[in-house]
Amino acid sequence: MSVLLVQTSAIALVAWLLIRYVAKLARKPKLDMAYLDFEDGDNSLQRYLNSTCDLLERGYEQYLKKGLPFAMFNYMDVSTPIVTLPVKYLGEVRSASASKLSFTSFLNKSTVAEDIGAPLVTDRVIHMVRQDLNKTLNELIEPIQQACDQVLQAVIPPCPDWTPVNGHMLLWPLISRIMTRALLGPELWSNDEWHAVVMSYFQAGHAASQRVRDTYRPWLRWTAKYFEKEVKAIYAARRKGEDILQPLIDARIADAVNRANNSQQKPGFNDAIQWLVDSYMAEKKPVKAAEIMQDVAFLLAASLQSTTLNSLSMLLDLVERPESVAEIRDEISQVYAQYGSWTRQSLGALRVLDSFLKESQRLNTFQFNTMQRRALEDYTFKDGLRIPAGTSIVMPSRLLGRDPDLHTDAAEFDAKRWKRMRDQGDATKFHFASLEDNMLPWGSGPHACPGRFLVQEVIKIIFMRLVTKYDIKFSDGIESRPPDFPQHAGSNPNVMAMVLFKER
Question: Under a CB-based contact definition with an 8 Å cutoff, are residues 8 and 2 in contact?
Fold first, then answer.
C-alpha cells in the first residue's frame, strides 16, 4: 500500500509541475511595444543565429532612433521576448537598483550557469575587482610586461622573413597567460596543467550552456548533470582546478593568519586568490577550494573571451592601416624617452594608440548590445513603460557607435578621432576605458565593467610589444580586414584570419 502511495504521489507531483509549466507558458508577459521579426516569415532558429544583427539594425532605425523600444525573440530564453531599449532610458537603467533590474540575474539565467555547474557572477567577485584589483593595477604593469614577452616568444615562431600567424591562436594563449598572471599571481600563469583545466572548463561550459538551454525545459535543467557529458566535464574540470588551487589557498590562509597575529606584517601575496581568502575570512566563513575555484573561473571567463575577440578585431583594424602602425611606433619611442619605463601614467600618455583602440571599439566591437538586465519584479519607467518581471532588457552599443547623428563621419575609421577630442577638451575623458553615453561597450554607471582598466592596460602592452618587435601585414592581395562572422546578437571578428609577421 505504501509503494502505491509513493507512486501515486510521484505521478501527482510530476503532473502538478507540468501544469505549472504549461500555465507559465500560457501567461507570457504582455509587452506594450512592437514585436520585431523577419518580414519574409522565416523565423527559424538558424535564421536568428545568422541574421539577428540585421534584425537589430532594422529595429534601431525603425524604433530606437525614434525613442521607441521593441521586443524580439530571445534565443537565451525562448519563453519570453527580450526588450531592446532606446538610449533615452539609459539614465534610469544605470541608476536602477540591482534588486529590481539585475545584471547578475541576466547573466546567470542566460548562461544557465547554475544548472550546469558553470561559474556564477557574485557580488563578492565584482567588489573584489572594483576595490582590490583596481587599487593594485600599477604594481601589475611590470609582471604583465614580463608575461607578455615570454609568451610572445612561445606563440610567434622565429620570423626573419614574413611568417603567417593565425591572429586568434596568437591572442588567446597570450591573453590567457597574461590575465592569469595579473589576476591569480605568479604560480599559475606558466602552469600548463592549470591552463588545460581552464580550457576544458570553458569549452565544456560553452557547449553545455547551449545544449541545455536549447534542449531542456527550464524546470528539468537541473537533471542535465546526470546525463550530459559536457556538464559532467564541467564538474570534472572544477575538481581538477580545486586540487591545483588548494596548496595556493593554504599558503594564503597562513599568510592571513600571520597578518592577523602581527599588524606590522605585510601581505605576502597580492592577487585575487588572496583577496578572496581575506574576504571569506573577514566574514568568518570557511574558505573552500570549490568556491574559490568558481570565483576565479568567473574572473577568467569574464575577461578572456571578450578581451581576445576585441583584441583580434583591433589587430585586424591595425594591420589594415600601416600609417597608424608607424605613428604608434613613433609615439611609443617618444613616450618611453620621456618616462624611461612603463607605468599606468606612461601608458596613459600613449594617446595615439589609445585613440586607435577606442575607434576600433566604436566601429567594430563584437557585441551589438550591452547594459543587459533582468527584471526581478515588475518595473515601470518614468514615462509609464512597463517591463514585466522575468523580462530581459538590453541597450544598443555597436549601433550607437555607428550612428551618424552621434558621430561625425561615423562610417569612417578615424584613428585620431578620440585624441583630438581629448586635446581639444577634457583630457580625462574620451580614453579607451572611459564611459560614453553614445557608445556603450563597457556599460554605464555604477554597474559598468569594473575590469575595464585592467583590460585597457593589457591590450596596450600587447599592441605596444607587437608593433615594436614586428612588422605586420596581410597576405598579398588582401587589403582590408576579413569579414566578421555574425552569431546571434554579435558580430565576431574572423577567427580564421591570418596575419604575416616579420621580426624588426
Answer: no
Q: Is 449 annotated as a binding residue?
A: yes
CA 111 to the chain's CA centroid: 13
Residue 302 lies in a domain: yes
Taking the CA atoms of residue 438, residue 413, residue 164 and residue 353 in that order, the dihedral angle to the nearest 10 degrees is: -70
C-alpha cell, 59: 529595429
Rg (CA), the chain: 24
**Helix 289-319 and helix 452-469, axial crossing angle in degrees, nearest 10:** 50
For residues 499 and 162, the answer to whether their CB atoms sit within 8 Å is: no
Q: What CATH number is given to the structural domain containing 427?
A: 1.10.630.10
Q: At 494, list the grid cell.
A: 574572423
Query: Which pTM was predicted?
Result: 0.91
CA distances for 295 relative to 115, 402, 434, angstroms: 17, 35, 26
- Domain membership of residue 475 as a residue range: 34-503
For residue 490, the cross-strand partners are 367, 487
3-state secondary structure of 487: strand
Residue 14 lies in a domain: no
Going by their DSSP bridges, the two strands 386-387 and 379-380 should be labelled as: antiparallel
- Run means of pLDDT, 10 residues per run, the chain, 504 residues: 49 48 49 94 92 96 97 89 97 95 92 92 92 94 96 94 97 96 93 95 92 88 93 96 97 92 85 95 95 95 93 98 97 97 97 98 95 96 96 96 97 97 88 94 91 97 97 93 92 96 96
DSSP alpha helix (H) spans, 192-228: 192-215, 224-227
- Among residues 363, 279, 380, 277, the alpha carbon closest in space to that of 314 is found at 363
